[in-house]
Every structure is written in structure tokens, then in C-alpha cells.
């Protein structure tokens, strides 16, 4: 019965989980000698401040205006700063792959235009938003396993 429950949960989760697409863009940041210490994190990468600024009202509002939308773009955006790097990676997750690319490009371009918010010497877009035709179902495996275990537990308790 546990195996049957697991199979049922798998098909249930597969039908209920909406696939999403990821689009990512990268920005190269030249910190400059005056702002090096204020922008550098302890792991050698850039501080998480970039995430706060890129998802902040000024950048998001500018991106919304350029797209002609009032949708909250910050909810779709994740900003990563890899260790020992001057690169900021901006990732957008959206159910539509073209929308994900448009959103990430708008946020990145807005951030570069509003570069005065970060005391960097310069910021340059090194890669525009990507498009890969591979949908992802976030947390699909994790939730499927958890629900299958719960269903198995209930079968054993009955």
C-alpha cells in the first residue's frame, strides 16, 4: 500500500506543481579603490547589499516603468554574489520563459542605470538574460517524498 500511495502522490504532485523557467544575467562590478572595502564581503565576493539594491524600490520601479507593468518584479528576482568574484548574478523565476528573460533584463538594465545607488566605480552587463527551454518544478522531489512518507505512515497507523 505504501508503494501505491507513493505513486499516487507522485502523480498528484506532478499535476499540481506549476513548472517555472529561470533566466539569469550577469553584471561585472569594478569596485574602485575608494569603495573596495565597503563592497567586498569576507568570502572575497561582493556584499549582499547588491541584492537589497537590485530588489529595492528605485531599481524595481524603474524596471516596471520600462516594461509598462505594475507587477512586483522583486518577487521573481534572486541576486547572488559568488565568492572571490566581481560578478553579480541576477536570476528570475517565472512560469513563462520569455517573461522571465524580460524581467531579468529590465532589472539588470535598471540597476546599471541607477548605479549611483552603489558606490562602485562601474557596472557592466556581461550577459543578458538566458532562455533555455527546460521547465523546472521547484521542490517537486522534496514535497513528493514528504507526502509519500506521510501517506505511508498513515497506512501503517491504520
Structural description of this entry:
The protein has 158 residues and is α+β, with helices and mostly antiparallel strands. The chain contains 6 helices and 4 strands, in the order αβαααββαβα. A 4-stranded antiparallel beta sheet has the order 2-3-1-4. β2 (77-80) and β3 form a beta hairpin. It is elongated. The N and C termini lie close together (11 Å). The mean pLDDT is 81.
Features:
alpha+beta; 158 residues
- Using only C-alpha atoms, the radius of gyration works out to 20 Å
Structural class given helices, strands, pairing?
alpha+beta
Instruction: Provide the succession of SSEs.
Output: HEHHHEEHEH
Strand fraction equals 15-25%
Give a brief description:
The chain is an alpha+beta fold and 158 residues long. Helices cover 45% and strands 18% of the residues. Helix 1 runs antiparallel to helix 6 (140-157) and helix 4 crosses helix 5.
Break the fold down into its secondary structure elements and pairings.
Blueprint (H helix, E strand, L loop, with lengths): L1 H15 L4 E10 L5 H4 L9 H6 L2 H11 L9 E4 L6 E8 L2 H17 L8 E6 L12 H18 L1
Helix pairs in contact: 1-6, 4-5
Amino acid at each position: 500500500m505504501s508503494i501505491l500511495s507513493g505513486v499516487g502522490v507522485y502523480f498528484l504532485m506532478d499535476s499540481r506543481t506549476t513548472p517555472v523557467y529561470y533566466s539569469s544575467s550577469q553584471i561585472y562590478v569594478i569596485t574602485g579603490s575608494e569603495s573596495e572595502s565597503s563592497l567586498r564581503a569576507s568570502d572575497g565576493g561582493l556584499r549582499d547589499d547588491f541584492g537589497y539594491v537590485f530588489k529595492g524600490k528605485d531599481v524595481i520601479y524603474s524596471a516596471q516603468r520600462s516594461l509598462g507593468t505594475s507587477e512586483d518584479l522583486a518577487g521573481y528576482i534572486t541576486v547572488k554574489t559568488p565568492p572571490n568574484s566581481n560578478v553579480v548574478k541576477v536570476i528570475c523565476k517565472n512560469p513563462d520563459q520569455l517573461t522571465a528573460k524580460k524581467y531579468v533584463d529590465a532589472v539588470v538594465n535598471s540597476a546599471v542605470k541607477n548605479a549611483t545607488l552603489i558606490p562602485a566605480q562601474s557596472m557592466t552587463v556581461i550577459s543578458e538574460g538566458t532562455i533555455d527551454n527546460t521547465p523546472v518544478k521547484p521542490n517537486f522531489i522534496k514535497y513528493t517524498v514528504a507526502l509519500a512518507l506521510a501517506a505511508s505512515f498513515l497506512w501503517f497507523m491504520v
